[in-house]
């Protein structure tokens, strides 16, 4: 796979660091990969957009799923994952996840993560939507992500892994053979380096998290602007299944005009017995699915949206009053505090909730070792598409996927180093271009993109809404391109303009895939195509970026997840 030659408009790097491996991102996936690479003797650098503990991992409330309980088996975990994935999971990828998961969690505990235990010292496991057994390990009640992040950050600091914080990664560097040669990045005025620089390394691990900020309301932190997916596309990598954005069913409703990161009300609250009700107190999920409130997330989100449509309401309610104050304070202290901070007391009143963008099931296409279609470029965690999640991620599989596949990536990089010394050479990146290769959008375009995506490509989608979104996104793209082509003008390089440009890139790909998939499957819900169509659409959609910045979109021939070998040229759209 050759590079597109497209790069963000940015100053040439003014400083550089040499390494064997550069890991971009500091969630569970990134830090696990970094720790494993460092332990294998590889010179490892972690680049992260804010502070080490500011990624999506720390916000994960529910927990981490693995077959750790008595009577549970990886096979049962696999079955639940395949059902949630609605026919598009890669079964081998899932088998890797559920088989290697339990030991990976045990290694995480050895690293220092402390999960909640019973009085007898056994892991205290809970249940979430789509799971038929209690297999969710949690910490601090509903603060699992924060505890995992703490343990991994402490380990990274204790073991002396080099880190560059407050740094936005810009683009992949490649050598004359098209092999990865590192990344360019911009450090935001903090620490040893300032401005644009480079980390030269023959192995790059993308662990940049999600892209929830492409929508107006999301559970994702403000840093989740799709930077990893956009970088990979510009580098010539392929992305897959980006239309499958999971909208978490129960996000604290702060008003119809609320924007940005919204507080999550964990699925574990329903797992412990809270009920979804409408304004009249009616449990509307009963009869819609055998698991009622504990159905897979796409089912619950659709159930809420349908009830909202029926009643012309903008939210529903989650009723956990029967828990009592003691259970709320012990089991869900974070959620209790968030609700009370917004004037709602779950002990005495139902919580207003509505779906919001939560998780990207698709991403940069990888194989079972985390390798992308660009030699030397790996991806893991939410930025990747391993085939594990299919059309809808099973609750609490995300932390486990980041953990398991990060370990596999580190093993592959280490094996490559041991077998053929690939990492002993200093990569020589191609010269940095003197002219801007990619027009930048203004910072204000971010909010325009978010409104376009929420209106046209949110929970409810149709041919009409997606066409309108595509036209509006294309206009933003065309205006920026023409301004650059005709008079050499583009927005001033900076974090806000780079982020807005990345958001437009991933938004265009998401909408293109959603328009092409003319069915309802998993968390992709087409109002005009309400049925699942296995004959035509039990396959993956793959997108790459052409050198002229147009999108090349194609579908796979079968349900098998494609290899990361370069495919034949797809039809342009």
Automatic annotation (TrEMBL):
<keyword id="KW-0274">FAD</keyword>
<dbReference type="InterPro" id="IPR005288">
    <property type="entry name" value="NadB"/>
</dbReference>
<feature type="domain" description="FAD-dependent oxidoreductase 2 FAD-binding">
    <location>
        <begin position="20"/>
        <end position="399"/>
    </location>
</feature>
<dbReference type="InterPro" id="IPR027477">
    <property type="entry name" value="Succ_DH/fumarate_Rdtase_cat_sf"/>
</dbReference>
<comment type="similarity">
    <text>Belongs to the FAD-dependent oxidoreductase 2 family. NadB subfamily.</text>
</comment>
<dbReference type="InterPro" id="IPR037099">
    <property type="entry name" value="Fum_R/Succ_DH_flav-like_C_sf"/>
</dbReference>
<dbReference type="Pfam" id="PF00890">
    <property type="entry name" value="FAD_binding_2"/>
</dbReference>
<dbReference type="InterPro" id="IPR003953">
    <property type="entry name" value="FAD-dep_OxRdtase_2_FAD-bd"/>
</dbReference>
<keyword id="KW-0662">Pyridine nucleotide biosynthesis</keyword>
<comment type="pathway">
    <text>Cofactor biosynthesis; NAD(+) biosynthesis; iminoaspartate from L-aspartate (oxidase route): step 1/1.</text>
</comment>
<dbReference type="GO" id="GO:0008734">
    <property type="term" value="F:L-aspartate oxidase activity"/>
</dbReference>
<protein>
    <recommendedName>
        <fullName>L-aspartate oxidase</fullName>
        <ecNumber>1.4.3.16</ecNumber>
    </recommendedName>
</protein>
<comment type="function">
    <text>Catalyzes the oxidation of L-aspartate to iminoaspartate, the first step in the de novo biosynthesis of NAD(+).</text>
</comment>
<dbReference type="Pfam" id="PF02910">
    <property type="entry name" value="Succ_DH_flav_C"/>
</dbReference>
<feature type="domain" description="Fumarate reductase/succinate dehydrogenase flavoprotein-like C-terminal">
    <location>
        <begin position="448"/>
        <end position="561"/>
    </location>
</feature>
<feature type="region of interest" description="Disordered">
    <location>
        <begin position="553"/>
        <end position="573"/>
    </location>
</feature>
<dbReference type="InterPro" id="IPR036188">
    <property type="entry name" value="FAD/NAD-bd_sf"/>
</dbReference>
<keyword id="KW-0560">Oxidoreductase</keyword>
<feature type="compositionally biased region" description="Pro residues">
    <location>
        <begin position="564"/>
        <end position="573"/>
    </location>
</feature>
<keyword id="KW-0285">Flavoprotein</keyword>
<dbReference type="InterPro" id="IPR015939">
    <property type="entry name" value="Fum_Rdtase/Succ_DH_flav-like_C"/>
</dbReference>
